[in-house]
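Record pair follows.
FIRST:
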Amino acid sequence: MADGDDRQATFGSDGSLETDRTPDATGENDFGEEKEPNETDGGYSRYVVSSLLQKAVRRSDEEIAAWAAWELARSGYAWNLWDRLNLYVVEDLRAGDEVALTIERYEELATERWEPDAWKGRLCAIHAALAAARAHSTREASNADAYFGAVADLRAQARARGEEPAHDFPVGDLEPDGEFGAVFDGHTGEGSKRGRDTRFFKTHGARVGPEGEDEQSARWQRLAMVLDEEIEYDEAELARAVAPVDPDDSWGGSASGDTEPDTGDGETHRSDAEPDTGDEGGGAGDGTGSLSDFAE
């Protein structure tokens, strides 16, 4: 991948050292004039064209984005173009968008298979810019980073004053008996102290949502629990393990207290429809299991 390693150090007319020019970025512009440092073939500043490209991607202006990418690529600033496009993927586009892989592939073609400023390389640049401009634009990651950083500063200042912060992280103090108690399973020291091993993990930590497990996955999960030779799950626990989390209450409130739902009769039992494992003892119902029995 292009990472700027092809940039060469040159000296400007005033004797100052320039490190941002590549061999391809020198020469004449479209008007037959010797290009100034950081000048494109069209006579523009590469910094301005690069900024234009980013704003065009944010505004989903396909034509402007395509031109800006073409101008940078043909002018010998492909390293700058691909560096910026890869930044836009995480700064200006929606998380999870497949355009990230698309841009990476176009960069590979333009810089490893072909010449980045030649016809094929320029096509790759245009394709990548169009893909970015057509993707879902959002600065969600940048906004989240700025917000979380501001809250971190406020929390620190509040603690120094001995006060409660006016704004806090969405997890608060993240306590074992709080809203996010499900995270304190056997993988954590606090969870281990509370005996939250395999039983707790299956009925709290491993739950998914809001759609929940599909029919096949739920069947496998249920049978794996039924056939467990160390732990005997009651029907309420089996149902809870495969039930989708509530989209309006995805953490299900506090996980403190009972890790075994009350069935109403005070007994732990298996459904009549569940297979007999043939094991009448040997640790069934001890509720412990091993951390090796489950994964995060």
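SECOND:
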Amino acid sequence: MSKTSFKIDPSAFLPVVRNTASFAYAAQFAERIRDRRQISHARRRALHEMPDHIVKDIGVTRFEIDHLCFGRARNWRTGA
């Protein structure tokens, strides 16, 4: 053995590995949430931009679509 050699305890690296893994998992989780929100927003936008004749055929009002898509019905009643 040389004078500069030393014994490395592998358990010392365990917290670093755990933190790295948890950060990677948290990043993936946040990305999935962001993707779901974008998809959900796109679906709401498509429903809201539906032509009037289709809305009439379905039998719903713009007010109901606003309520379902954006929660505006609640704000409309309070005058916001």
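COMMENT: DSSP finds four helices and no strands in the chain.
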